[in-house]
Input
Amino acid sequence: MDMEKTVCNCMGVTCERIKNAVESGACTLEEVQEATGAGTVCGACLEEVEALIAHFKAEARTP
Output
């Protein structure tokens, strides 16, 4: 996965920023939105943001 890929064009949020938010305790879409701003303008990226949250949460649970 390209961690520098911009997921939210409106706010300039990358995969890495979403991963960092999840690693810092943001567990829901709303918490990640609050931490990063992703998906708070036009909402076109919400599906991808939610998928990334699920991915990074699962990755964190894997030993």
Notes: The chain has three helices and two strands.
